[in-house]
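wait is this the right file?? whatever heres the structure
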């Protein structure tokens, strides 16, 4: 089949309709008009002919879902993701200091808003891509009970949390310990990871018996991967609203626009939920 007829074929176009709908909304926010089927077809043709790379800064809690999303995104669009993983606060600082990221997937909603206010992110492109859930996890089966009562008996060694100043999941963990009135008693047992990724590693390797991690790190396809966990009730901490935003360096990159649009499709939202996000 000639290339031109491939782009115009209905089955091919139907795969891109959800992405194009989201992409058109992004373009309108940027003040660019995208009208009619001819523009949609042109966008698809440009995308296929000029597959690009998106430089994504992502909070550590979302690294596993992003890997899965990236595979589908590349398969369907031809674009690739180049990913840098870290604590939200540290990634924010890197962006402020000139890191060449094009899209920021934060673990909170404050950092993207601040970047937008500073002119480092494109106005009106910010949206919530996930609502994070906190979990108390142990690599040992049966160690954590379904109600988190293990925190009050204190019969364990070290407990890991992410750095509260730079990682929203760490700040949430401190809120939970405070609400349960066990922070003072457990402070001598705390070990702090630079990010939620390092926190997970502390528990997985046995350097900490317990740890407050992102539910997405220990869940896949709706099932706990290993060990034992208590899914922390959402009312015990400030909601973890995770926002995405287009950074100014990505404004002229069609692949960055395509990726943000892809994040908002129903298919991607369903995939994100399988990792334990609301």
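ok assuming it is, sequence goes like this
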């Amino acid at each position: 089949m000639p290339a031109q007829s491939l782009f115009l074929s209905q089955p091919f176009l139907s795969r891109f309709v959800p992405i194009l709908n989201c992409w058109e909304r992004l373009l309108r926010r940027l003040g660019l008009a995208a009208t009619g089927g001819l523009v949609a077809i042109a966008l698809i043709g440009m995308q296929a002919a000029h597959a690009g790379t998106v430089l994504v800064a992502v909070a550590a809690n979302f690294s596993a879902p992003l890997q899965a999303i990236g595979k589908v995104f590349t398969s369907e669009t031809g674009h690739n993701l180049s990913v840098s993983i870290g604590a939200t606060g540290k990634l924010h600082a890197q962006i402020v200091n000139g890191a060449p990221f094009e899209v920021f997937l934060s673990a909170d909603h404050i950092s993207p808003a601040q970047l937008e206010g500073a002119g480092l992110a494109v106005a009106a492109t910010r949206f919530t891509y996930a609502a994070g859930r906190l979990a108390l996890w142990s690599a040992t089966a049966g160690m954590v009970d379904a109600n988190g009562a293990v925190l009050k008996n204190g019969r364990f060694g070290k407990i890991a949390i992410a750095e509260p100043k730079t990682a929203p999941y760490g700040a949430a963990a401190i809120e939970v310990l405070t609400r349960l009135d066990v922070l003072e008693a457990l402070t001598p047992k705390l070990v702090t990871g630079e990010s939620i990724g390092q926190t997970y590693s502390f528990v997985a390797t046995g350097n900490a018996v317990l740890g407050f991690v992102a539910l997405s790190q220990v869940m896949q396809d709706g099932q706990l991967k290993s060990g034992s966990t208590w899914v922390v009730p959402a009312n015990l901490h400030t909601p973890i609203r995770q926002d995405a935003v287009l950074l100014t360096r990505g404004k002229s990159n069609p692949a960055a626009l395509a990726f943000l649009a892809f994040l908002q499709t129903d298919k991607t939202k369903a995939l994100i939920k399988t990792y334990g996000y609301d």
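The two ends are 43 Å apart (CA to CA). so i think its the right one actually
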